[in-house]
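request received
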Amino acid sequence: MGWATPESYFDQLERWLALEGEAERERLADRRRQQRAGNPERSGETLVNLRVTDHRTGLAGRLLMDFAKPASEPLPMNRLKVGAPVVVSGEDDPDLSGQPGVVSARRPNTIQVALDDWPEGRRFRIDLCPDESTRLRQLGAMSRARGLSGSATRLREVLLGFETPRFNDLPRVEMVTALNPPQEEAVRFALAARDLAIVHGPPGTGKTTTLAEIVLQAVRAGEKVLACAASNTAVDNLLEKLAGVMPSVLRVGHPARVFEALRGHTLDELVENDEASAIVREMHRDADRLLRAADKPSRSRDAHQRRRELRAEARELRRDARHLERHTIQQVIDAADVVCTTLTIDEELLGDRRFDLVVIDEACQATEPAVWQAVLRAERLVLAGDHCQLPPTVLSAEAAREGLGVSPMERLVGSAGSDVFRRLTVQYRMHERLMAFPSARFYAGELVADASVRGRRIADLPGIQPELAERPILEFWDTAGAGWDEQLEPDGSSKQNLKEAGWVVGQVRELLEGGVPADEIAVIAPYAAQVRLLRGRLQVPGLEIDTVDGFQGREKEVVVITFVRSNPTGEIGFLGDTRRTNVALTRARSLMRAIGDSATLGGNEFYAALLDDIQQHGEYHSVWELGDGA
Ligand SMILES: Nc1ncnc2c1ncn2[C@@H]1O[C@H](COP(=O)(O)OP(=O)(O)OP(=O)(O)O)[C@@H](O)[C@H]1O
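response:
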């Protein structure tokens, strides 16, 4: 991708945003149509037939409502993640106008939404809603970036590839965290950057740890830092690391979107705990007293005049209280060394503040339009991520084709090459055998397993039965020729594979019987239909069954993968994006089992190489060996 001018770049971005908006609205309309067809939950963006099981008042007076199914059965698979904007409406409400809210917590059987007001109705539905406000903020930032002039354009030109990034000599740095050599090198490289540096962090290599050290060093040098990420979860992961190494970290954003344990860092709580807030509360109470006094019946001659005076006084007190509160908020922000936020920045709150350093974690999950709000506030920018894992989610197929799915980080790594990034190479997650293939394919063979994980075995967990302890680290079971075909999910468009699902159930049972705790097992399927099928069959508390997207950034001791695709034409759909498979293959710490059809997958060069590698290591089995089902 290349652009001749900033104008053509921003024109392109505006077009992409328009296409995304269209696609989102189209999807909502689709969901409504499905609702009439009687299957609104299939989309994963709607939950229906919910009742309120609990409610309480949360921070800043927001109403926190828990919703569950009638018999508290597990909720169907859905994309209503913590932080997602939703609308809660009564089932009988014909136009589903409802109350806007934000998902604030989720458990297998309940979902909690933070709302400003009680929605009408007795049975409820929750719909994910298009996030127009995010798009508007992005458009605003893009138009400001387009209009920059003079020296302010420097970072923009570097990001667009019109100018090359500049670096000072590598500084000597006394690290606070115990880092490995490539991590130290990345910290020094990022601190030497005069405009832009990139940290490439393959799975488990301590990218967030490294970023936290970069931020800490900047703060030690007296700088102010803005620490961002595309998702609330990624911001919280970064916040958690930062809060561990420095005191003055502030998290802005809807408190409902922040992990409970980190809420002490939120702006709402810090303001609430500030001395000035006690005065503000007192002022509000005084204003209430004045209003009550004004309401008291009185027969005196000047009662009317007196009432007016009291009300005016109350109004003034309220105005002063609000003023003091705004002032307190700004003071709390000013006092923080580091401000953490998602890339959707509250412009009103941050005003015209600029930061010496802006870091973006999980930068490969951010689209081009998504980064400009943060970039505009930056003197220097550090991006951290892994372009060999999942790219940003894009709804519009047209925008995706034109390149919206390529993050700026991926684009820059491609165009500027190693001049602009440093790669972390020591990983702290996987047994070295599990690391080998992904390392060779995606990371130029550079990954090294740290001594603490290199020989990691399932037997290291307490209570593992001897039979399981001796099983190989990796097994691939091939269904080729066995007729274990994929199916289209009944009345859906996602794929499932009943026979593979049956095999997975057997594997999970064996692992549980072998002593692996359920919460140390992940079942990963690329297709939502297979996930739904397996969740129905395997209702084990603690066991996680999800799509690849649900596991990005996470790890488990044991991973079972079902590839699902098995058809005579070698069709592999989005398994063709091997970055998705890279994520699946790099989640397990010590044991991995996978099942798939080599005849279907093997037409693709990547899977052919994977299968070859597995065969060479004697980890290959055919389901024909199982005798029965084949
Ligand atoms: N230098 C180090 N020494 C020891 N442990 C480390 C070091 N760096 C990172 N780790 C450990 O490695 C794990 C992964 O670190 P971190 O969460 O920073 O990684 P990440 O690369 O951001 O993760 P992911 O790839 O999953 O996004 C953590 O448990 C962390 O404590």
